[in-house]
Amino acid sequence: MASGRVFLVGAGPGDPGLLTVKGRRVLEHADAIVYDRLASPRLLGYAKPGVSLYYVGKVADDHTMPQRDIEQLLISLARAGRNVVRLKGGDPFVFGRGGEEALALAKADIPFEVVPGITSAVSVPAYAGIPVTYRDVSPSFTVVTGHRSTEGLELDWNAYAKLSDTLVVLMGVRQLPRIVAGLLTAGKSPTTPVALIRWGTRAAQRTLVGTLEDIAETVRQTRFQSPAIIVVGDVVSSRDELSWFESLP
Amino acid sequence: MASGRVFLVGAGPGDPGLLTVKGRRVLEHADAIVYDRLASPRLLGYAKPGVSLYYVGKVADDHTMPQRDIEQLLISLARAGRNVVRLKGGDPFVFGRGGEEALALAKADIPFEVVPGITSAVSVPAYAGIPVTYRDVSPSFTVVTGHRSTEGLELDWNAYAKLSDTLVVLMGVRQLPRIVAGLLTAGKSPTTPVALIRWGTRAAQRTLVGTLEDIAETVRQTRFQSPAIIVVGDVVSSRDELSWFESLP
Question: Most buried residue among A51, B6, B162, B181 by CB atoms closer than 10 A?
Answer without folding.
Answer: B6
